[in-house]
Design goal:
With 394 residues, this protein is α+β, with helices and mostly antiparallel strands. It contains nine helices and 19 strands.
Length: 394
């Protein structure tokens, strides 16, 4: 028998959330086959089995927090004596094999064995599915392990119409009659990262207004219209290349540096927030960057982004210009030194050469980690972004 343990995924957080099992107890598992999904500070990813045989037991319930080294499952190998039909003697404690990269850490009983509440906590993918079909998860009797609601349960409720939810009762739709919902796995990770940022980073903000006239003209119209966010990503990528201090970040007391201008873009889908990366933005054109952002947004809506899509970024751009927002502050990710928040472009009277013109001005606010970047450097960075945008990135 092999005991599988949670591998070290190299996350900022100390634990990850086991979102969904991909195999049921009693099913065959191949070496390297995806066994379960986890939610990390980077997104959702699959974890492969480090052994092959039959899945004997799943030791962690869906929705539970797991640390590296914690027991996850037991697998009976095909050649194990315990799989033979004849009765066997008791296996000594030293006999089981452990597929582990870390020593055992004694988990809390509710985490290791799975409490009823944890087993019934819906995964983000189920919440999204229930919302799509107007199904009330709290009204479904789960058929999964420990009473957990499965995808088949949600689809069955949809087909029968027995668990339709009023708009205020749907998962994530806010307060309504009946029991409330806790944070899903994804939003738990987001909340944890925001809390970590506020605990660790002494943040200050620098704000400038940018004339968007040339950027609007360069954006174009019709089928080939570029994303406004692409212009901000490109301008920040140029500034990040010229000012590498903004690619630094602190891991404890150690200063680390990101090699490339891989920029995260904040994308909101319903109540969920994603921050996938536009890779090597400094070396790419606006059309490429715009196409990337469009693809990433489509994948975010489909909940198909993986952990690798959000890893190893050095900066964040959050654009709320589609809403009548005057200004706001973006939260800096734990592995970043700064983040840019972009508000709406508003027609504003401006005095130019003794005359008054109406120009579209947008407010840009740079959130900065004061441990790494001083105020003068932050002002120069934002002034460079402003200059690039007011030239239409020519």
């Amino acid at each position: 028998m092999t005991t599988l343990r949670m591998p070290d995924l190299g996350t900022v957080e100390g634990t990850v959330t086991l979102v969904r099992w991909l195999k049921r107890e009693g099913e065959a598992v191949a070496l390297g086959e995806p066994l379960f999904e986890v939610e990390t500070d980077k997104g959702v990813s699959e974890v492969e089995s480090a052994a092959e045989g039959t899945l004997l037991s799943r030791l962690v319930a869906e929705g539970s927090a797991v640390a590296s080294g914690d027991p996850i499952a037991t697998i009976q190998g095909r050649a194990d004596p315990a799989s033979a039909p004849a009765p066997q003697a008791a296996v000594p404690a030293s006999a089981p094999v452990e597929a582990a990269a870390r020593p055992l850490r004694a988990p809390a009983p509710a985490t290791a064995l799975g409490s009823t509440a944890a087993a019934r906590r819906p995964a983000p993918s189920l919440i999204a599915l229930a919302r799509k079909h107007g199904v009330d998860l709290s009204a479904i009797r789960g058929t999964g392990l420990g009473g957990a609601v499965t995808r088949q349960d949600v689809l069955g409720a949809r087909d029968s119409g027995a668990a339709a939810a009023a708009p205020g009762d749907r998962p994530g739709a806010g307060p309504g009659p009946g029991p409330g919902y806790g944070l899903g796995a994804l939003q738990s990770v987001v909340a944890s990262r925001v809390s970590q940022s506020h605990r660790e980073k002494p943040v200050y903000h620098v704000t400038m207004r940018v004339d968007m006239t040339r950027t609007i003209a360069a954006r174009g119209s019709g089928p080939g219209t570029r994303s406004f966010t692409a212009f901000f990503v490109k301008a920040c990528a140029v500034a990040l290349t010229e000012m590498p201090v903004f690619r630094r970040w602190l891991a404890g007391s150690e200063v680390r540096v990101h090699d490339a201008a891989d920029i995260a873009v904040a994308i909101g889908v319903d109540e969920d927030l994603f921050a996938p990366a536009v890779r090597n933005a400094g070396a790419r054109g606006l059309d490429e960057i715009s196409a990337d952002i469009e693809e990433l947004a489509a994948r975010a809506r489909a909940r198909s982004l993986g952990a690798s899509d959000s890893q190893d970024t050095c900066f964040l751009v959050s654009n709320l210009g589609a809403y009548p927002v005057d200004s706001f502050d973006a939260v800096i990710a734990p592995e970043h030194a700064a983040a840019l928040a972009v508000a709406a472009a508003v027609p504003t009277p401006v005095a130019v050469g003794g005359t008054v013109r109406i120009v579209p001005l947008a407010s840009m606010t740079l959130s900065v980690d004061h441990r790494l970047v001083n105020g003068g450097t932050a002002a120069r960075f934002l002034a460079r972004v402003k200059q690039l945008l007011e030239r239409g990135l020519e």
